[in-house]
Amino acid sequence: MNDRTENLLLAVPGILLLALAFFLPIAQMLALSVAGPDGPTLAQFERFLSDPYYLGVLWRTVRLSLLITLICAAIGFPLAYIMTKVGPRLRLWLVVMVILPLMTSVVVRTFGWMVLLSRSGLIPELLRDMGLVGRSFALMQTEAAIVIGMVQVLLPFMTLSVLGVLTRIDTRLEEAARTMGCSFLQTIRTVVLPLALPGIVAGSLLCFTLSASSFVTPNLLGGARIQVLAASIYRSVTATPDWPFAAAQAVILFAGILLVLIPYIRLTGTRHG
Amino acid sequence: MVRSVPTWLRLAAIVFVVLTALILLAPLIVVVGVSISESQFIAFPPNGLSLRWYQAVLSSDAYLGAGWISLQIAAVVTILATLVGGAAAIAIHRRQLPFSELLATAFLSPLVLPTIIYAIGMLMFWSAAFGPVTPVVLALSHTVIALPYVVRTTLAVLAESDPFLEEAARTMGANRLQRLWFVVVPQCLPGLAAGAFFAFNISFDEAVLSLFLRGPTLTTLPVQIYGQLEFSPDPSVAAVSTIMIGLTIALIAIIERMLGLNRFASA
Predict the structure, then answer these.
(1) Between chains, do B245 and A107 touch, taking CB under 8 Å as contact?
(2) What is the pTM of this model?
């Protein structure tokens, strides 16, 4: 036995598993999305793209995902920056604060938001008491509820990707900027932010992808009336079993995500190579 | 440092961190609060204190059954993902295979592909080829999405290891199996352990694959909770959820004690 055989033997179980239980099923799904009674057809895609209802679902998915990503970046960057500046003990607690929700089941976290946002829940009650909203104000079954819930679900991903990049930045760069007369905010804007950009971009892509493809939180917080693409896919699979249509919607979701991902991979690929 | 950060900014930072902590932890705190409530209905802040909902969970066949299935599947996934992922990581790390770059990408790809797309593919493929979904299929699919975590943590540990140790073992006459078992695997151990904990956590908490690949006799704990939330949530859902949060806290504590969280948090 030589080195190559040994390594091949080590990798083979994984390769087999991925081939049979990952790549093959995805290929099958792609094939089913164009399957028709008589040969390949694009009928399912036509059905989706010509129906104003589904176009509305698609637009809502893109709009909400962008908003969620933006909010995550706006909170995640400062949070990660603060995490690099505090002492090791406090930093550990902040890491726990970020990781604990991340490792808790999405179902459990969404349940928490259902309680907080419900008609008699803490947040609408508080807003009513402060006189900011009217008596009939409700948060559940609105897009706002989806955004609030999803930001909490995805913020850890953004924070950790930015943190990964920030910890590798040479702190002397910041000190140099300060000695040369930059104010604190100028240093952030001209030194830290540009250097952290790869982390922010990677985190944003992750957030966008995950929020465009999640349905548990949107289903439970937004209800049946406010559908997003992933929820519509789930319904096509379970409620009205229509697998070819579900497959076509999944392909549309996949294509949309690739559309966002590929320019980024190209960009980072050329930078490294 | 030169001039320090202005005071108002420090204060703003403190307020910001407290608010963010509130957003991140509020849902968890609320769930725990609801679970110890006396009231029939879900209410926060809780009315009265009682453990009756925990009693309700522990005497409910639906929750216990789902919990047992989740545990079994998570155990299988942990073992499978750690063995398969660890072996693959060792092979990838050595870079002797002609396509090791491609292999590394392939092993990390379940991380990039949205789970819902994979879940549909898995459901359609297995039902078309082999009929109804079985626990084995669910366990395999969980293993696939847990694999990248094991590969990543093991590769991270191997990257810091000393390549000459294996060389030394070879010159001293150790054969392939001995080198692998006594030199390489012990070096991987922290990565394998972290990967195993992540794999368990992913499988135990996973909802998307479990929802698509569920069956009348195949309901995991997250699916059971999801079903309750869609129809008639009572505080017993909060009690189960609190137990799951407790398990997560225990896992995080173990990872921190054994290996240090920081090491894997920003990797």
Answers:
(1) no
(2) 0.89
